[in-house]
Amino acid sequence: MRCLARLSSKALLVLCSLLALLSLLLWTRCSQRPQPAPGPPEHPGVPDSEEASPQDAPRAPGMPGSAGRAPRYEEIDCVINEEQTVKGRREGSEVFLPFSWLERYFQVYGRIAQADGGERFEFSHSYSKVYAQRAPYRPDGVFMSFEGYNVELRDRVKCISGVEGVPLSTQWGPQGYFYPIQIAQYGLSHYSKNLTEKPPHVEVYETAGDGNGNGNGEWTVPKGCSLTTVWDKTRLTGVKQFSCPESSEGVSLELNNGRDFIISFDLKLLSNGSVSVVLETTERNQLFTVHYVSSTQLIALRDRDIFYGIGARSSWSTLTRDLLTDLRKGVGLSNTKAVKQTKIMPKRVLRLVAKGRGFLDNVTISATAHMAAFFAASRWLLRNQDERGGWPIMVTRKLGEGFKSLDPGWYSAMAQGQAMSTLVRAYQLTKEPAFLGAALRATAPFKLPAEQRGVKAVFMNRHDWYEEYPTTPSSFVLNGFMYALIGLYDLKETAGEKLGKEARLLYERGMESLKAMLPLFDTGSGTIYDLRHFMLGTAPNLARWDYHTTHINQLQLLGSIDDAPVFKEFVKRWKSYLRGGRAKHN
Amino acid sequence: MRCLARLSSKALLVLCSLLALLSLLLWTRCSQRPQPAPGPPEHPGVPDSEEASPQDAPRAPGMPGSAGRAPRYEEIDCVINEEQTVKGRREGSEVFLPFSWLERYFQVYGRIAQADGGERFEFSHSYSKVYAQRAPYRPDGVFMSFEGYNVELRDRVKCISGVEGVPLSTQWGPQGYFYPIQIAQYGLSHYSKNLTEKPPHVEVYETAGDGNGNGNGEWTVPKGCSLTTVWDKTRLTGVKQFSCPESSEGVSLELNNGRDFIISFDLKLLSNGSVSVVLETTERNQLFTVHYVSSTQLIALRDRDIFYGIGARSSWSTLTRDLLTDLRKGVGLSNTKAVKQTKIMPKRVLRLVAKGRGFLDNVTISATAHMAAFFAASRWLLRNQDERGGWPIMVTRKLGEGFKSLDPGWYSAMAQGQAMSTLVRAYQLTKEPAFLGAALRATAPFKLPAEQRGVKAVFMNRHDWYEEYPTTPSSFVLNGFMYALIGLYDLKETAGEKLGKEARLLYERGMESLKAMLPLFDTGSGTIYDLRHFMLGTAPNLARWDYHTTHINQLQLLGSIDDAPVFKEFVKRWKSYLRGGRAKHN
């Protein structure tokens, strides 16, 4: 018993020590509280009212000074405009407000991010970035910041048409329609990427021989099919002739490329037929096949087969397809205005399969084929300009409450301008007069008012404006107007003094209007998309941040070709709004 | 030893228990941390860009989901727009930002306030309040919300002139000048207070007898001075005649009023002389004396003597003075544009002292004397209207960079309008034709452009506007325009169809312009003070919150006399901006 007592006495001593240590530890941890913010915040004094507006009572309330004691960290009810209560935190005289409230209230952005091994919170006033204007803008150079655009990946692009080679929009109608603005932007973005990106590696799989036995691909020809190398008199080169019943497996060319996904080949069909490409995908390594079929069907999906109609192709043409886009648009196929989201990606291009009767040549795979996309857009614009010089937009467009609907067949100054920018570039590359001629004819709608299917509006009887949407009443959409001006600039610079005279006059009058009217789009903390508030007597239609940065990008471009100070000043101020800057108040 | 062991074993047991208890306590306290905010914040999705502005990359960054563990409370660096770092607090996925940063960044307001026994934080988006529009506005009713104005207390009012009975402004020049807008507002605020406040108690100290021996004050007449009651034939009443050398103590009337501070008396001087009022003040109970002297000096301060010149006063007139204002303007006297701040207040009116030779009658003290102030303003306007119908403003006014200076002698549509509102009210009370005649003549400058010393501007060749500041180029100040319209309304309503025809036409054309141009002043989150941004190509001159609420108060007033929906809609939206509301973005 005594031993036990002695033993337990020792044990108790150890226990005591341990508990004391634990107490000390807990005490220390409990006291480790964050430092208080440095002193009370400054009081932004409200300036004394001018005679005109003498509200005498109100003064900005200030924060009481911090007490001498160490600040406690505690929850505090924060009453917002006497309307709602959010839970904040308080340490002495400093109050902390939760970002989850703040981001909704002020429409700002933030996230916890990794930095230097630790975490930090990154707050941003806006989500959109302005591009640096490199060199002065040129009509044969990069178009604004379009090298960063990926038109075909937008979910309102249903797919790239196999027949036309250009995107089909579903923005204002799920049925899909060819939207000249989207098509021009598709062309201009690829034109710009071509200037800013390195030339791609091109893997050649089949050239049907160079006469020395080189350039033949690894073909598999099943029973009942034939594949021969023949001389094509029109092209002065050997080509592969294939003949396979539709019911057969088809002749198949081994590709096995796991790096790049732009396939290109020359094709001439003698009957109905198809060229299909078999893809290994990220979707549990499933195989998907994209079929390019001699029909006019736009796009279809059956299980893991995706179909694009490419027309009859009864004479030679080159088909260049982005297999990534074709796969994703097929898997995401939908009857709505937006392509369904999908994570699927191609992993490997396994092989090409041809059926029916026809000829193939120059089968290649590369990372990009920007000029093919650019010329697809340029030639679509050539083919689809009407007798009035316009690209009629075959969808109903209702800009908003208070505006009459634009019925299918309306023209857009933005479409006309972006088409000019595209066509002028095609002309500079090819010197084909058709491109310049189309661009010159595209000025015609600029001279007619909306009632006569033109795109011209006049602000307050004084300032000529070119309407992205020639609504009644006029809407004065800013970004579309500036794109129209850029198109006119491209054209007048390219066409020369005589041919380009009309474009020059339209450009100069438009620039005058722009310089005079820019302030009407400035809210002091952002920009306004159009002037519907003035035309309809409503609230201003504020531009969201990506339109705001578009405005800035456009002004930067215009400022590089016109040294009026207004451009530099507005760019500077409008940029500052992206970081929370504001115009002064009185 | 064994006993000790046994004893210490017991002691150790107790110690162990105590330490265990302490550990438990500390553990519990340590764990009592503030609750985390409910889940991760919502992600405001950025809508997909329209064709016109297809920035493809940016998406609003979101917050990562909260981890399953109990959130720790810790400091976190918050990087603001990649520009500065502030110390925030973090609990799990919620981040708290310090209000000391937030108030400067967003220009908002907040303070810790007592409520229900505890403390809470009160956040406000703006510091200015809108007044409720009571009944529909009437030309003989309260003027807008002016019953809340205290013109004379503004620090840009040097003092109330003893000669003129109206305020003298130092807003744009420390020398001081009579500013018709300030004078009209002084009149209109007192007119409005007279309608909204209870009639004051009036303490009568001297009426020089009613013939029955009543109404005589408690006078002290030192040696060498005389004081007698005499009959005044022009006034048909007894009055006090006094005669005292300037070097004497003067005859003195006991007042001893600790409640009210507006003194009033009828005075006629036969020589140079003065009436002084001795005040006990809050300044260590020091005595200050306010001297009303037969000179034209504006104001002077020597030690604890304050001097106001009141002119010769050689015929009967009533002098009504707010001793609180007179004391504070004297003590705060300064050579700058603003009266110095002072905490001094009168505590008790001890006595009145008269020197020189003259007559006194009807000495009273009351809490207010609004009609005296109103008529002082109205009669000043009558006396000071010039042959062109205007009240020339005798100070140089430079509205801002880009505008020519207005040279002394310029007219203001706001001054003309506020004078109309004042004069029409004086006419309705007195039926004196002079008041109406002056108001009618005041329309003349509305018909002339700035180059001809008029106040009319025309916006874009279309909309007539009445300029608070008839600058070159035009400035289109909104609040001044609306005050001018209210004046024209008051006049056309009061003058009747025939006499008021001109005012009616001016009013109607102005209202048309207002309805058309209001949207140009709307930023989607506040309002713009004027249109200088459009006229000069600069940043918008944002209206601070008290001008914003003035705009709203004016629109509410106009909406009560014109049922066009635009007024109700704009009032509703502009009110919402005070609580952080915003117009929609696209």
TrEMBL record, chains A, B:
Report the membrane topology from the UniProt record.
Answer: Single-pass membrane protein; Single-pass type II membrane protein
Region span, Disordered = 33-70
Q: Which GO terms describe its biological process?
A: heparan sulfate proteoglycan biosynthetic process; heparin proteoglycan biosynthetic process
Spell out the reaction equation it catalyses: [heparosan-N-sulfate](n) = [heparan-N-sulfate](n)
Localization recorded for this chain is: Endomembrane system; Membrane
Spell out the GO cellular component terms annotated for this protein, sorted alphabetically and separated by semicolons.
Golgi apparatus
The molecule here is called heparosan-N-sulfate-glucuronate 5-epimerase
Q: Which organism is it from?
A: Rhodinocichla rosea
